[in-house]
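Hi R.,

Here's the chain you asked about this morning:
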Amino acid sequence: MEILITVALVRAGITALVWPVWFRAQTRARRRKDPRYAPPHLMGVFDEVSYPSAYSAVQIIDVETRAPAPAPRPGGRPRL
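And the predicted structure, written out as tokens:
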């Protein structure tokens, strides 16, 4: 039984050391593909539970920043 606990603790320790490196590598890879990529908000879960309107505002801001620019009007002056 002690061996199982030891193995579980070693795995947890290795995971705690490897996960941040893996997360950073994934973020870099996504940024290379899409420069507009932003990693998920770490406090998003807590905001959603404790202050839902703030979390909704963050989601709206994220969607608006990713929205494409409006198309030019046909026959009109270009928008500045």
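The chain has two domains: 1-35, 39-66.

Let me know if you need anything else.
M.
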